[in-house]
Amino acid sequence: MIRLRGISKVYSIKDAESGGMRDFHALRDVSLDIEDGSIYGIIGRSGAGKSTLIRCVNMLERPTSGQVFVNDMEMTSLSGAELRTARRKIGMIFQSFNLLVNRTVYGNIAFPLELEGWGKSDMRDRVREIASLVEIDGKLDQYPAQLSGGQKQRVGIARALANRPDVLLSDEATSALDPQTTKSVLRLIRDINEKLGLTVVLITHEMNVIKEICHSMAVLESGQVVEEGSVLNVFTRPEKSATKEMLSHVIHSPLPESFADLQFSKAPFQGADLTLQLSFFGTLATRPIISDLARKFNVDINILVAHIDHIRSTPFGTLVIQLSGEEKEAALEYMLDMKLKVEVIGYVARSVELAS
Ligand SMILES: Nc1ncnc2c1ncn2[C@@H]1O[C@H](COP(=O)(O)OP(=O)(O)O)[C@@H](O)[C@H]1O
Ligand SMILES: [Mg+2]
Questions:
Q1: CA nearest 2: which of 64, 68, 89, 94?
Q2: Average pLDDT of the residues in 137-164
Q3: Which fold has domain 2-247?
Q4: To test the ligand 1 pocket, which listed residue (8, 9, 11) has its Cβ within 8 A of the most ligand atoms?
Q5: For the chain, what is the mean pLDDT?
Q6: CATH superfamily of 257-349
Q7: Residue whose CB lies within 8 A of the most ligand 1 atoms, among 9, 24, 43, 221, for a mutation test
Q8: Who surrounds ion ligand 2 at CB < 5 A?
């Protein structure tokens, strides 16, 4: 378990106007619990404080106040040698890979083992083992400059894992990679998480990364956690506008362009149809909902848009339907009572042709 308790980080920065120094709060009272063996994503815009936060986990950055616990060890209380020992159990990977350019792939992966004083033959076995896990074993004699971005990050991952850490920290590890390579590196991180059972904390500015591999997530904005929970919950019930904005890039807007010209009214009027957007996930299938409504209420249902995506491997869908008939408000009440996220788009005159 990784526990952050009331973490704040204040930098002293130069004030542009006065020329003097002033305090800048990069993190404000951040508290998070990260379950053992989970993949935890922290997302936020550039400058939100993500790198500062993840560096507080292994004390590359010391919080101004608050406590950090990794496996019940209070990192914030350690210093010097104790901290160096504790850090061995926390691997880290970076956007810019941070490989040693004068060393081969073998030399890069062996580096942390050399620092720990491993014997030559144990070291060779371990480097080969971990290189094969990340599928870079064919490149052990090459230098970083001879590798593609994806291969460099595989070396970075191998080096981070060499000491058998319990925790892997990833600071935008896929941000310098193309979409295809990003997918393969994310798949590798997911495999490692499953095979080795280590806890992964990753920070990113891309919702797609969260969607692909994370179990839980937090949204960081101006140094504060503004939203937190399971990825399914945050994706299906985002509360903050920052979250909704970031989600709009990964969850395709289900409203067809032809809707833009329509006058939706929030209030019902004579001869109007009720247009709704439903979000559902997991095993909650669409068909029972629709047939249920048709059976229970005197309504006609028209499906305008249906879209299904996946969060990790869980289906996540959006449906836009239009209800007409006497009991459409009763049907709406019924849906609100169920475990469904229902958003009223509005009432629109029935004669309007909506099909796009
Ligand atoms: N060492 C530092 N000194 C002063 N300000 C810093 C320092 N490190 C980061 N900052 C500031 O803190 C804020 C958060 O930075 P960072 O954690 O790198 O954000 P992110 O990784 O989300 O882009 C930024 O405004 C950045 O300029
Ligand atoms: Mg950063």
A1: 68
A2: 97
A3: Rossmann fold (3.40.50)
A4: 11
A5: 91
A6: ACT domain (3.30.70.260)
A7: 24
A8: 50-51
Interval between CA 50 and ligand 1 midpoint (Å):
8
Distance separating the N- and C-terminal Cα atoms of the chain? 50
SS3 helix, strand, coil % of the chain, rounded to 5? 35, 30, 35
Task: Look at residue 337 in the predicted model and tell me its pLDDT.
Answer: 85
Token digits of residue 317: 């869908």
Type of residue at 224: Q
Q: What is the pLDDT of residue 253?
A: 57
Outline which parts of the chain fall under CATH 3.40.50.300: 2-247
Nearest residue by C-alpha to atom 17 in ligand 1: 49
CA atoms within 13 A on the CB side of 216: 14
Kindly report, residue by residue over 193-249, the tens digit of the pLDDT: 999 999 999 999 999 999 999 999 999 999 999 999 999 888 877 888 888 888 877
Lining residues, ligand 1, CB within 6 Å: 11, 13, 24, 26, 44, 46-52
Q: Which atom of ligand 1 is nearest to the CA of 9?
A: 12
pTM of structure:
0.82
**pLDDT, tens digit, for every residue of 64-85?**
999 999 998 999 999 899 999 9
